[in-house]
Design brief:
Length: about 500
Amino acid sequence: MGNKRLYWPAKSNYIPPASSTSIPKKDFVYDAIFIGGGAAGRFGSAFLRAMGGTQFTFEADNHLGGQCCKHNCVPEHFAYDNSVYMDHLRWFGGQLWFPEIPDKLDMAPIFDVYRKVRDTNVYQFMTDQSKGQLGIEFAVYKEAKIIDANTVEVDGERYRAKNLVIATGARPRIPNIPGINLKGVITHQELVGIDYEPQKIVVIGQGKTSSGYTSFFRSCGCEVTVVNRSPIYRWLDDDVREFVISNMKRRGIKIHEGVKIKEIKGVEKVEAVVFEEDGKLKEVPCDTVFLGTGVVPNSEIASPLGVEIGPNNEIVVNKKFQSSIPNVYAIGDTAGLPYVMSKARQSGMIAAKNIMGEETEMMDRTIPEFMFTTYEITWCGLTEKECREKYGDAVIIKMPPDKLDIGLPLAERSMVMAHLHPEMSGFQKAIIEPKSRRFVGFWHVGYGAKAAFQYLPVLMDKGLTVDEMATFHELFLNAEHFIQLTRLRAGQKNLSNL
Ligand code: KPC
């Protein structure tokens, strides 16, 4: 069974104007041919062009920008934004000036709106920017076949390049569970094209993408049950995890951890999920199963080359994103973990630099991460436990302090929550290695701190101390309270928790 579902649902009507796309040259040797024009391929192509190189990018789908604007980042954030509004209306309804909302709100029209805007605005922007501003040469609806390390075949014609860059992304991992092919078993890809109204959803697997959708389903008023093989969100700091999970449960999401999924039941359509928990068989009725069981890199295209493939089907690369054949690069999700946008885009840039003769490796920076529930959860660096294990000690600055259900933190977007439901306004934590007085981790659950987490790891990697942060200028009231809280402790010779 495995990963045989390779279709790309949620079809789009967008067709780029012929004047925006290019005709590849047959009697020419490009510096690079990119296979795939998603985030990695598009940024790589743009960077190579900017450096004066020649490229051609073959895209199998109808647009550049890849899964990001089709099934991943954009719909995920759109669902999250809707989710927060619905969640807030549910908690605020009937108080202050807030109206009451119905128990069940439909999600199909939400994705209808998303698809319309995507097809007309986002795809068009991808075309216009790529061609007009960046000078990328590309063609869409073009399935490329690799012939050798310098040649691809498209529509029966052969094209040549000094380097090949494989940027074919990843697909959802479909677990081997009886009933997995029943109607109503969907991934985030099918969700975007949903044409019925789910009422009862079982989410199998709680990854960083399914987490946001889990809360979105609940915000819409669905009955939502999470089933997971192991404890969920094991990557989070313990205090952060506690706040996040307790707030999911507070909103009525049922969570079963450490379970063994036995079967997805149904005749034509999914009807229930059966799993084993504490040695007992349990059955949760549902009309939809949402899979959050990870992704698999699309590396099959490289099989004619015999490049090294890793354990999760990724093309194995070095820090220059070269495969085991030096002039064949793999970038983005095709090159394996981490499956994050920043790596996708940077890997394109790094491959382009190396192709153009500027030897470059990906810098060993701390990578910030985020996920959604009805909160934005952002982090970089170590958990408190990891800090104690590594350095033997940790000083913690957090808000709210232990056992205090107070309306803090509070800033834009958490103000009303902090006043109406103080215990739910958010949570944040900074972790300091006390001997060096350096920050080693930042964690935030709330709203509006994500942008800061693009810069905090850079400062942290440069050795940011509490004494230095105490000199920063906060824009009070600010989503992350790290600056002002740090300043309250920086005067201490021996730092203590706050
Ligand atoms: C709005 C938007 O830019 C989302 S799609 C991004 C795809 S890409 O710029 O190629 O990473």
